[in-house]
Design brief:
The structure holds 2 protein chains of 2 kinds. Chain A is of the alpha+beta class. Chain A is built from 16 helices and 19 strands. In chain A, the strands form 6 sheets. Chain A has a 4-stranded antiparallel sheet with strand order 3-4-13-12. Chain A has a 4-stranded antiparallel sheet with strand order 11-10-14-15, with no helix packed on it. A 3-stranded antiparallel sheet of chain A has the order 1-17-8, with helices on one face. In chain A, strand 14 and strand 15 form a beta hairpin. Chain A is globular. In chain B, a hairpin with an 8-residue loop joins strand 9 and strand 10. The longest helix of chain B is centred in the middle third of the chain and has 22 residues. Classes of the chains: A alpha+beta, B alpha+beta. The interface between A and B is large, with 57 and 48 residues.
Chain lengths: 415, 410
C-alpha cells in the first residue's frame, strides 16, 4: 500500500514499480533531512487533518519583476526556451505556441503551462516506458519511439540499470539550464513537465521541511516568532526570500510550526497531502477580452490531474480558430493591453496540497530553533547590485542585443 | 527626504482620527497643468493653515485644529491634463482601473468581482482627477476642511469664470467605531496588519521593480476607495447561523470559526475567547485574531477566509496584503430618500493589483459579493476609484505630487 498516488491522480494506470519508486523517492528526500518536530511523511498520521489554504503563490517569475520592472520581465519571461530556462522558477513553466497567421506572420496562438514535476515523468520513463510513451502520444498527439527520444530501443532501455536510464532521460529530455538544453526538443515544444532544477521535488521537500521548525528570536529568555527574512538569513539564503515560491512554501510550513499569537507557543503537524504534486489552484480570466467579449470558456483547458488538482493548462484558441492569443486584451477601454504569457502566469496560483492538524500542541523548549534577530528590511529584493539582478540584467542585454553587436562598431560583435 | 504622506496611520501608537471626509476634485473645461498647480498650491496653503487652526476668512483668530490632516491623491485622469510633466504610474494604467457604471445603472466595480454599483448609479462619482482625504478628531474639523475647499474653488470660479480649472465633485463623510463592529453587527477590522514595519512594507512603494518613468513614485502609496452601501434588509433576512457562516466569525464574541459540528453549525476555535477577556481586541485573544488555516470548505468560503489567506510576509506582493483605514457612514433618511448605512472602504497598498486580485480571484472574493457562496447582494458601491498618493517631503514640492504639474518641482 502506497502513501502517495500519482501526482494529481493523473496516472492511475501506471505500473506498480513506478509507484513504489515514486514513494521511495519522496520518503528518501524527507528522511534525508533532519527530523522536524511537525513535518511528517504520511498525511494519514495527522489526526483530523484539513487541507491548508495558504500554501500557494502566483506562477509568474518574481525576480525579473523586482530587478527590471514589469514590462521587461514579461518580455524576457515570454522569450521561448531561453526565458523559460532562465527565469521560470516559481514551480510553473510555460511557453507560447506560435503559428503563422493568414498573411504569414508568426504570432502567439496559445499559452501552455505545466506544474508537473520532472521527477515523476522521469520515474514513469525509467520504470514504465510503455506507459510513458503512450502518455507522450496522448498529450502531444504524436507517437515517439524510444529510439527517437532516447537514442536506443525499448529493449536496450530495459537492459540498462535505473541509474543509466535516469542519466539518459536527463540528458535527452531535461538538459541543464539555458546553456545546456535537452538534446531532444520534446519538453521544449510540448511543455510536458518542469525542467528547471529549482522546480523539482527535491527543492519542494527542502523548502517545506526547512520552514517546518519553530524558529524563534530569543531575547533574554523571552521568545518571539521570527520573520521570514530572519529565517532565510539564518542560513544565508536571502536569495530564496526574493521569489514567490520559496517564501510561500516556507512560510506556510512555519505558520503551522509556530502558530502566530499562540501563548504558550504551539505548533501543528503538517504533511504533503496525497498525492504529492504541484497544482494550479486557481486561474482568473474574468477581465480578459477578445473583440470586446469575455474569452470563451472553452479556451481554458485544464488537464493532467483531477478537477481540483490540474497540472497542465492550455489557454487560447485551437488551430482551427482564426484568432490568436495576441488579440486578447486585459480589461476594457483604450488603455487595455495585449495579454502576455507572463500576465497569464500571474493569474495562475500554484502550490502543493498540504494537510495540517486541527489541534495544536505546545512547543517544547528543545524543539525551538533560536536564530539571530535582524532589523526589518534587511533583505531588499531587486536592488541592481544583487547578484541575481545582475544575471537578469545580462540576460536582458542578450535579449535586446542577441547578435552581440555593439552600436557604433560597424557591426562587429563584442564577443 | 521622500516618505509616506501623512494621513495614513501605519506606525506604532498611531490611531486614525474619528472622522473622515473624502472630496473628489475634477479638472474642468480644458485647464492646463499650470492652472491646476496654482489651485493646488493655494489649497495646500489653506489645508496647512487649517491643520494649525487658521481659517482663511478669520484672520488673526485660531480654532481648534482637532487633529486635522489631509492626504492628496491623483487618479489616472490627472495625468491626462494638458501640460503635465509625468505619465500616469503603471499602477494606475491598463488593467488597474475601476469600471464605469453602466449607462442604465449598476455594473461591476472591477471586472470579475461580485461587487456592483447600485442600480441607480449611472455615473461613478469616485473616479475623478484628484481626491483629498481629510481626517480629524471632530466632525467640524473635517467639515470645515471641505467647506473651505469648496469656498476657495467657488471664489476661483467667480474670479476666473466661466469655468474654474478645478471644481469639487462628490464628497463623502464617515466615522470610525469604538466598538470595532460594523453595521452588520459583526466585528470588523480586527485582523488588520500589525502596526509598524509590517504595515509600512505593505503600503509603501518600494524602490525596486519600477520602470524608469515610475521611479518618482517611491515612498508613495496607492489608495483604493469604495463607498459601499450595506443593505441591512438583506442581511437581517439571514439567520444568525447563516450570518456567522458568511462572515466567518461569531457575531457576539468575534471568535473565528475553525470547524463544523456534526449538526452543520460552525464551531469557534478552541479556547476562544479567553475567559475573562473583554473582547477580540483584548491582547489575551491575540492568538485568535487571524482566522485559522486548514478549515472545511464552507468556512473557506466565508468573508474573513476569502479576504485574507493568512500569507506572510505581508509585504510580499503575492500575498495580497493591504492596510485598511475605513470609516462607516450613515445617511439619515430625509423623508424622501430612505436611510443608507455602509462603509467608506479605504485601503492603502504598494500595488493596486493587490485589491484587483483580491476582488477577482475565485478563491478570494472573485464573483462573490461579500462572503459565502454567490447570492443576494449585501453590499453595493455608490462610488469607487483608484488613486496614487505621492510621497511627502520632496524638497522642491509645495504639496506632494507637485512635480506632476510643474516640471521644475522635480
Amino acid at each position: 500500500m502506497h502513501i502517495f498516488q500519482s501526482p494529481g491522480l493523473a496516472d492511475p494506470d501506471v505500473n506498480e514499480a513506478t509507484l513504489v519508486a515514486w514513494n521511495a523517492q519522496i520518503r528518501d528526500l524527507i528522511d534525508g533531512h533532519s527530523v522536524s518536530p511537525f513535518f511528517v511523511l504520511d498525511p494519514s498520521d495527522i489526526e483530523n487533518g484539513q487541507t491548508a489554504n495558504s500554501v500557494k503563490w502566483p506562477g509568474n517569475p518574481r525576480e525579473p519583476l523586482d530587478c527590471v520592472g514589469e514590462e521587461l520581465a514579461a518580455q524576457l519571461s515570454d522569450w521561448g526556451w531561453p526565458g523559460r530556462a532562465e527565469l521560470h522558477n516559481e514551480y510553473l513553466e510555460y511557453s507560447l505556441i506560435m503559428r503563422p497567421d493568414s498573411v504569414g506572420n508568426v504570432r502567439p496562438k496559445r499559452f501552455i503551462a505545466t506544474t508537473e514535476l520532472m521527477e515523476w515523468w522521469r520515474t514513469m520513463a525509467v520504470f514504465d516506458l510503455p506507459y510513458f510513451l503512450s502518455l507522450v502520444k496522448k498529450i502531444t498527439g504524436k507517437a515517439y519511439s524510444s529510439e527517437e527520444l532516447f537514442g536506443i530501443s525499448e529493449s536496450h532501455w530495459n537492459g540498462l540499470g535505473t541509474a543509466p536510464r535516469k542519466a539518459l532521460f536527463m540528458r535527452r529530455l531535461v538538459g541543464n539550464g539555458r546553456a545546456q538544453p535537452p538534446e531532444h526538443p520534446l519538453n521544449i515544444d510540448h511543455v510536458l513537465f518542469m525542467a528547471e532544477n529549482i522546480n523539482g521535488l527535491n527543492d519542494l521537500v527542502f523548502v517545506v521541511h526547512f520552514g517546518s521548525f519553530p524558529y524563534a528570536i530569543n531575547v533574554g529568555g523571552i521568545r518571539r516568532r521570527a520573520r521570514l527574512e530572519e529565517i532565510f538569513l539564518s542560513v544565508d539564503r536571502s536569495d530564496l526570500f526574493c521569489r514567490n515560491a520559496d517564501p510561500g512554501a516556507a512560510q506556510g510550513a512555519y505558520d503551522q510550526a509556530y502558530i502566530d499569537g499562540s501563548n504558550p507557543p504551539q505548533g501543528r503537524a503538517l504533511a504533503f497531502a496525497d498525492p504529492v504534486g504541484m497544482y494550479m489552484r486557481t486561474l482568473t480570466t474574468t477581465d480578459l477580452r477578445i473583440d470586446g467579449e469575455t474569452v470563451p470558456d472553452e479556451w481554458t483547458r485544464f488537464s493532467r490531474g483531477s478537477s481540483d488538482m490540474p497540472m497542465r493548462l492550455e489557454f487560447g484558441p485551437d488551430d482551427d480558430d482564426p484568432r490568436f492569443l495576441d488579440e486578447i486584451k486585459v480589461g476594457t477601454g483604450p488603455g487595455a493591453e495585449v495579454v502576455s504569457g507572463y500576465f497569464l502566469a500571474r493569474e495562475i496560483e500554484v502550490g502543493p496540497l498540504v494537510v495540517i492538524a486541527k489541534d495544536a500542541r505546545p512547543i517544547s523548549n528543545a524543539e525551538f530553533k533560536d536564530i539571530p534577530a535582524v532589523p526589518p528590511g534587511a533583505v531588499t529584493c531587486g536592488l541592481p547590485g544583487n547578484g541575481r539582478c545582475q544575471q537578469i540584467s545580462e540576460f536582458a542585454d542578450l535579449f535586446e542585443n542577441p547578435l552581440g553587436v555593439v552600436p557604433g562598431t560597424r557591426g562587429q560583435s563584442n564577443g | 527626504m521622500a516618505e509616506l504622506p501623512r494621513g495614513i496611520y501605519w506606525d506604532h501608537g498611531q490611531v486614525p482620527p474619528r472622522h473622515f471626509a473624502i472630496a473628489f476634485l475634477r479638472a474642468t473645461g480644458r485647464p492646463g497643468a499650470a492652472d491646476v498647480d496654482h489651485a493646488l498650491t493655494d489649497l495646500a496653503e489653506i489645508w496647512r493653515g487649517l491643520e494649525r487652526g487658521r481659517v482663511p476668512h478669520l484672520p488673526g483668530t485660531s480654532v481648534p485644529p482637532s487633529g486635522l490632516t489631509w492626504l492628496l491623491a491623483f487618479g489616472r485622469k490627472a495625468f491626462d491634463i494638458h501640460g503635465v510633466s509625468r505619465r500616469a504610474p503603471r499602477g494606475l494604467t491598463h488593467s488597474n482601473v475601476v469600471e464605469s457604471a453602466l449607462p442604465g445603472g449598476g455594473g461591476p466595480v472591477v471586472l470579475g468581482s461580485g461587487i456592483n454599483y447600485s442600480g441607480d448609479v449611472t455615473r461613478n462619482p469616485g473616479s475623478e482627477d484628484i481626491a483629498v482625504q481629510f481626517v480629524g478628531d471632530t466632525p467640524l474639523a473635517v467639515a470645515r476642511a471641505v467647506v473651505e475647499t469648496e469656498t476657495y474653488l467657488s471664489e476661483s470660479l467667480q474670479r476666473l469664470g466661466p469655468i474654474a480649472p478645478v471644481q469639487m465633485g462628490a464628497v463623502y463623510t464617515g466615522f470610525n467605531r469604538e466598538d470595532h463592529r460594523s453595521w452588520i453587527g459583526h466585528h470588523d477590522g480586527i485582523s488588520n496588519l500589525e502596526a509598524g514595519v509590517q504595515r509600512r512594507g505593505v503600503i509603501e512603494v518600494p524602490p525596486v521593480g519600477l520602470a524608469l518613468r515610475d521611479r518618482w513614485t517611491v515612498a508613495g502609496t496607492y489608495l483604493a476607495f469604495m463607498r459601499l452601501d450595506v443593505d441591512l434588509s438583506v442581511w437581517n433576512r439571514h439567520s444568525r447561523a447563516e450570518q456567522d457562516l458568511i462572515v466567518g466569525r461569531d457575531k457576539i464574541t468575534g471568535c473565528p470559526f475553525g470547524s463544523m459540528s456534526t449538526t452543520g453549525l460552525p464551531e469557534v476555535v478552541a479556547g476562544c475567547p479567553v475567559i475573562g477577556s473583554t473582547g477580540p481586541t483584548d491582547p489575551a485573544n491575540d492568538a485568535f485574531i487571524e482566522p485559522p488555516d486548514g478549515v472545511p470548505q464552507v468556512l473557506k468560503d466565508s468573508h474573513v477566509q476569502r479576504s485574507n489567506h493568512h500569507q506572510d510576509p505581508a509585504d510580499l506582493p503575492a500575498n495580497q496584503r493591504f492596510f485598511r483605514q475605513g470609516y462607516e457612514f450613515l445617511d439619515p433618511p430625509d423623508g424622501v430618500r430612505p436611510m443608507r448605512v455602509g462603509l467608506n472602504f479605504v485601503r492603502f497598498q504598494a500595488q493596486i493589483s493587490r485589491l484587483r486580485d483580491t476582488l477577482r480571484r475565485p478563491t478570494w472574493l472573485g464573483g462573490v459579493n461579500f462572503g459565502g457562496a454567490p447570492g443576494p447582494e449585501l453590499i453595493r458601491a455608490r462610488a469607487a476609484g483608484f488613486y496614487f498618493c505621492p510621497a511627502a517631503g520632496v524638497d522642491s514640492e509645495i504639496y506632494p505630487g507637485q512635480s506632476i504639474f510643474k516640471a521644475d518641482a522635480v
